[in-house]
Amino acid sequence: MRRKSVIISISVILIVLFGLIVYRGFRYTRGVPVSVEKKEKPVLEVPFIDIDIDLAKDISLEVWNRIPPKEIELNYQVTILPWGKSLISPIIVKAFHNKKFIFFYIRYKDETENRTISTNKFSDAVAIMFPLEDKVQPATLMMGFLGEVNIWQWKASQDKEYWLKTSAENKVYTDFYYPFEEKELFPVSKDVHRSAVNDLVAIRVGTITPKENQNVHGRGFWKDGYWNVIFKRSFEPPDEHSAKFVIGEKRLCAFAVWEGEKGDRGGRKSISDWVEVIIK
Amino acid sequence: MKRNEIIAVILVILATVGTVVGIFGIEKYRRAKLFTVELIARQPAHGNWYPRRIKVPFGKEVRIIIRNIETVSHGFALPAFNVAVPEIKAGEVVVVRFTPDKKGTFPFMCTVWCSDEHMDMTGELVVE
Amino acid sequence: MKKVKTFLLLNFFFLVLPNLCFAEERLIEIKAKKFSYTPNIIKVKKGDLVRVRLISEDVHHGFFLDGYNIETSAYPGVDGSVSFVANKTGRFTFRCSVTCGDFHPYMVGYLIVEPNIRFYTFIFLVIFLGLGSILLLFFKREKVNDKDKLFGLIDLNWRFELTKFKIIRTLFKSRWFPLLLLIFNLFVFTVILIAGFIGGYQAGNYNFGIMIVWILWWVLLMLILVPVFSRAWCMMCPFPIFSDWFQRKRLFAVNQDKPSGLNLKWPKKLKNMWLMNIVFLFTTFFSGFFTVRPFATFVLLGFIILLAFIIGMIFEKRSFCLYICPISGFQGLYSQFAMSEIRVKNPEICKKHTPKTCFVGNENGYGCPWLLTPFDFKKNTYCGMCTECFKTCPYDNMAFNLRPPGVDLLVDTKREPKGLDEAWKAFIMLGIAIVFFLAYQGPWGFIKDMARATTLDGYLRFIIFHTIFNLLVIPAVFFVFVYLSKLFSGNKEIPLKKVFINFAYTLVPIGLGVWITFSLGIILPNGSYILHILSDPFAWGWNLFGTANFPWTPVFTGIMGYLQGITLIIFYLFSLAYGFRLSKQVYPELKQAKYGWIPIFSFLTLITLIFLWLFIG
Description:
The complex is a heterotrimer of chains A (280), B (128) and C (617). Chain A is built from three helices and 16 strands. The radius of gyration of chain A is 25 Å and the shape is elongated. Chain A starts with a helix and ends with a strand. In chain A, a hairpin with a 3-residue loop joins strand 4 and strand 5. In chain A, strands 1, 3, 6, 7, 10, 11, 14, 15 and 16 form a nine-stranded mixed β-sheet that branches. Chain A has helices at 2-27, 61-65, 156-163; strands at 43-46, 70-72, 75-76, 91-97, 101-109, 125-131, 149-155, 172-175, 186-189, 197-202, 209-210, 217-223, 226-234, 250-258, 270-271, 275-279. With 280 residues, chain A is an alpha+beta fold. By secondary structure, chain B is of the alpha/beta class. Chain B has two domains: 1-34; 37-127, Cupredoxins -  blue copper proteins (Immunoglobulin-like), CATH 2.60.40.420. Chain B is built from one helix and eight strands. The longest helix of chain B has 33 residues, at 2-34. Chain B is elongated, with a radius of gyration of 20 Å. By secondary structure, chain C is of the alpha+beta class. In chain C, helix 4 (179-199) packs across helix 10 and helix 8 packs across helix 12 (326-334). Classes of the chains: A alpha+beta (280), B alpha/beta (128), C alpha+beta (617). Chains in contact: A-B, A-C, B-C. The interface between B and C is large, with 35 and 42 residues.
């Protein structure tokens, strides 16, 4: 039955061809196939060291030298307008606790020390953000949009006025105001600082609010082109809107750096992805 | 009539093979004539940018066509050269043009929250 | 003066005050997550000031309100807001206006502005018309010489022959028709396949394949091609062109030799719609994929054309088209309702004509590839309108007629009997319309998750429910009403099967009506994408006609509810009109027909009311 075999062979060839085309199309359904490596979150270990740091005196570099540094990469903030225009990356982070207080140390390269703020001059700053919920979605990186976050923001200008007790050079300065370039310079008048670090809460972009009780202290020193900034807060959360730390548990945090020289303020900053913090 | 049969066969071949060849041919010509680099935007889980490293020549005008082949919006920012596209919606194609005036390696990234690994959606532009 | 005062006071209390007193300011937070909203059904009262705050929980989502035409969108972390006064009553769909994923076109929610007068009006109309028809039935006197007129207006025997115009007849007799149409469609089909293949998992709403097939072609089929032109799509369908070419070894000319291929006869047991029922149902399992993912459309269409070719090599003529093609199934059934037909003009001429060239072929054309006997077939079900019989008939005795819709529903001959297979097709089409509406035009996210196989478990439950609902539940419910019909009629000898099969055909008009209504919900919101894909079919950055950046623009969404209601009512009336005629065919006595009709009438009214509630309630 020649006819039969011809038809069968044509059918088989067509089916195989179709199968090959489908297979090829399948592999390329998302463009050229590449192998995808899952990026692991960087882990910051917070060991227990029975030492206290008095910020009024110094930042105790010897203590910090005992702890291995953790390098965290930062990226331009380009997800919410206005975007970061400059990038500082990487930063070195260390942390330890003594059951009463928890300390964070951040060191990064910055050519200039910017401690003054006025209209058009902006201060260097560093912030750590802690989500307050237990289940945190990755997208919550954008100022905690599905849950509250507690942000500790240290500002060099605030640091100068608080620690060096110098009086303000100017009574007003410009702060950020979302969301556009021209409308970004919004004059704000000064208030008396209770610390060099602002203790803030936020849920979604644009809702950043200073807390009633300012519980975080910090100090920063600039030397040889590097900023060294310490954060200090009680280990137990002082109120319900504060970051919780539990020994043995993993928590999340993220970092942000502002380079005042390049006009960083508000949304213009360099940010990190989530970092896992393990309290030992 | 034999002639009609030939016409019919030619028409069918044009409609099928001709279309295929024509479409891919036109696109190839279009890309060769106009564009320097085609950049495909994908979530990191689906492969990230392709190609993730782009090499461009120093000093000459560069055109990058960015195609979003996904079902979510992406964006594009190349801060080193002040190039940015706030949002590239799903299925959209955007052309950016700039002239690289610095040599080195510069990052570009996605600017719209597209997936859980959005922060990972970065690539490198190498100018030499 | 006192009268005026009283009048104004009464006005105030009964008209103005209620609207003022109870109109509130409502702040509604809508959370948007792929692919549904929470809350998904929102009720407000007429006159309320509604402030909507859209919160996105994963990616950029949008909010567009039908009828009010207002829009906003929200990024994760950046809310969107819009406010409006709810001064139009009814049920309005709000949909996502930013492509957010594969099921984006199905991401909808419902806003009900009470009182939903539009819905109540249509319910009232249906009940009024239905009861009116029953009263008419029982109290109108039947005159013996009455010609059977549909709605008392259209003579069932009216035919208007289009081929009496010389130009149309010449067209039908030319061998270039429908070959040229076919070749054009083949070209479009090739573009669809390429777009589908390249498209991969891209956004379906920007893909040529998905838009042309599931939006343009499907809606054209449902709105125009089937109801008006019967199986005209089969006339220009490119699927069988390669198998025809293989069998005939010629594309244009007529080859009177034995066709190549095995030419097997299709097994007699399968010469019905059962296989197509199963194939169509099986295809709908994957509707969550091929309506949104270009590559899935490529696989489906590629597979169908491959199958068509292989079947064409093995079996005779258009066996694939007749007994396997999923589109063929529903076209076959619904073409019985169509307003066109191809029939013989003068049967006397055919009686004296041997051999019947329309069936065996001659040098001008092929014998009917659809295995029909053109000289005496009476139903549209299996006629693919290929016009070969026009070419072969030496007496020009074939005609293309316009006719009143639904005439074929009353035809029951030995050669073209009514059967269980067609009854089940009617059930399946109705059931699929319900499931598709719930899944794709309904606001329930969990059904969408099941349809797109977010979890294997949910997907299996979806297909099992889908199958049982279509193959068992709907026929079972219908059976109850059929049983009641036999009971009410008082006729004890008539076989229940006969009653069941005949009355199943009453579902044809209302089924077609439901699909047209569903199609309106597809084309009006999403039709504007077609302009985009015509200019940029492959998402490569082309701009052939300058419309590549045409924004998504829903049209006529304000009146969509009315259009849908009116469509349902029109087809409901057709179902009633033919239903009673079918009853008279089933029951030998008029009195039995009248009483036996009542349960079926109730069933039809009930499902029309259910569909009204689904679409506009």
